[in-house]
Specification:
Layout (H helix, E strand, L loop, with lengths): L5 E6 L2 E6 L5 E9 L2 E3 L25 E2 L16 E2 L10 H4 L3 E5 L3 E7 L6 E10 L5 E10 L3 E3 L1 E3 L2 E3 L5 E7 L2 E4 L16 E2 L16 E2 L5 E8 L2 E8 L4 E7 L6 E8 L12 E9 L8 E2 L12 E3 L5 E11 L1
Antiparallel strand pairs: 1-2, 2-3, 3-4, 5-12, 6-23, 7-8, 8-9, 9-10, 10-25, 11-24, 12-22, 13-22, 14-17, 14-19, 15-16, 15-18, 18-21, 19-20, 20-25, 21-22
Length: 326
C-alpha cells in the first residue's frame, strides 16, 4: 500500500495541509486576529485506516471529483427514473481515490497533479492551492486536461467540521432545494425523498419540519439535498470561534450545491456513529447520481448533465475558501 504524503503551507494568516491521496485539503487553520483562529475543514476520525480502500482510507477536507458521484444506482427509485452503468468503478472519480504527486511548492503556493488511466477521456488533473499573503484565505484551482471531448458530472467536495460548539448554515440565496430521490441511508435518513422546499429551516421529514441550518442535529441521521441556483458565497458560521467561513465559486459553471449532512447516522465501519460533518459541494450534476441515474425530463434538475471538457483545451475551475472574525 502506497504511503500517504502530506505537504504544508504556512503563512502569516494560517496553515493548510494537502495530502497525496485524493489531493485532499485538510486540516486548514485560519488565524482571524487577536490570537483567535478557526479550523473549518473536517478530518475523519479514522485518519489513515489501512483496511479501507480509495478515498475512504483517509477521508478529509476538500477534493475535486471527476467524474462526480456514485457508481451504483440506489434501490427503490421513483417511477420515471432510469438506470445506467457508470464508466468506471471509482466513487467520485479516479483522482479522488489515487495518489497525487507534488509538482511545485513555494512560500505561498503548492501544486500537485494526478495522471488518469490511458483509456480515460481525462488525461490528468492539476491542482493549485495558493495562500493569500494578506488574509486568512486560500485560492484553489483545478486544471483539467482531456484526451478527447467529453461531458462529465463534476463537483468540488468541501467537507466542513461540525465541532461541539456547532455550526450555523447561513447558506446562499437560492431558487429551491430538492431532496434526494430515495432515502440516502434507508432506515436512518429522515427527510422525505423526492420533494422540493424553500428553506433549510423547514425541511420536510418523517417526523415533521426540521431546522437543518443548525448542526449538529438532535438525532443521528445522514441526509442529502441539492440547493439549486445557489448564489455564492456560501457562509458557515462557527459561533464558538466567533468566525464566519466563506466558500466562493463560479456559479455559471457550478450552479448548485449538494448539501451532505453527516450526523452520526452511519454505524458501520469505519463511520461507527462518530462522523459529524457537513459537505457543501458546488456541482454540475444530478445529485451524486449523474453517472448511474437518468431523471425524468420533468425533474427541475434534469439538465444538470455536467461540464464540457475538450481535447487539447485545458479547463480551469477555481474557488476560494476564507474566514473572518465576527
Amino acid at each position: 500500500m502506497d504511503q500517504i504524503e502530506r505537504w504544508k503551507l504556512r503563512w502569516e494568516h494560517g496553515e493548510a495541509e494537502i495530502q497525496s491521496l485524493g489531493g485532499m485539503l485538510a486540516p486548514v487553520r485560519f488565524d482571524i486576529g487577536e490570537g483567535r483562529s478557526v479550523s473549518p475543514m473536517q478530518v475523519a476520525p479514522w485518519t489513515d485506516d489501512g483496511s479501507q480502500h480509495g478515498l475512504m482510507r483517509a477521508l478529509r477536507g476538500e477534493w475535486p471529483c471527476l467524474p462526480f458521484g456514485m457508481v451504483e444506482a440506489p434501490a427503490g427509485l421513483p417511477d420515471g427514473f432510469g438506470r445506467r452503468d457508470a464508466s468506471d468503478g471509482w466513487v467520485h472519480g479516479y483522482g479522488a481515490n489515487h495518489m497525487w504527486t507534488l509538482v511545485n511548492q513555494t512560500a505561498h503556493m503548492l501544486m500537485i497533479q494526478v495522471a488518469y488511466p490511458a483509456d480515460s477521456a481525462i488525461e490528468r488533473l492539476e491542482r493549485k492551492v495558493e495562500a493569500d499573503p494578506n488574509a486568512p484565505s486560500l485560492l484553489v484551482s483545478l486544471t483539467v486536461h482531456a484526451r478527447r471531448d467529453v461531458v462529465m458530472p463534476f463537483a468540488l467536495h468541501p467537507t466542513f467540521a461540525v465541532p461541539d460548539g456547532g455550526v450555523e448554515l447561513i447558506g446562499c440565496s437560492s431558487q429551491s432545494i430538492y431532496s434526494y430521490p430515495v432515502p440516502p441511508e434507508p432506515g436512518i435518513s429522515q427527510i422525505l425523498p423526492n420533494r422540493a422546499f424553500a428553506s433549510l429551516t423547514e425541511v420536510p421529514t418523517t417526523k415533521g419540519p426540521l431546522n437543518a441550518s443548525r448542526l449538529p442535529l438532535a438525532e443521528s441521521t445522514e441526509e442529502l439535498m441539492q440547493i439549486s441556483g445557489c448564489e455564492p458565497p456560501f457562509i458557515l458560521r462557527y459561533p464558538a470561534e466567533h468566525a464566519d467561513v466563506s466558500l466562493d465559486w463560479n456559479a455559471s459553471e457550478l450552479p448548485d450545491a449538494l448539501l451532505w449532512i453527516s450526523n452520526g447516522g452511519r454505524t458501520h465501519e469505519p463511520w461507527a456513529g462518530r462522523h459529524f460533518a457537513v459537505g457543501v459541494e458546488p456541482l454540475n450534476s444530478f445529485f451524486d447520481l449523474g453517472r448511474v441515474v437518468t431523471p425524468p425530463a420533468s425533474h427541475p434538475l434534469a439538465n444538470r448533465s455536467g461540464l464540457v471538457f475538450k481535447a487539447d483545451t485545458p479547463r480551469t475551475i477555481t474557488y476560494r475558501l476564507s474566514a473572518r472574525a465576527l
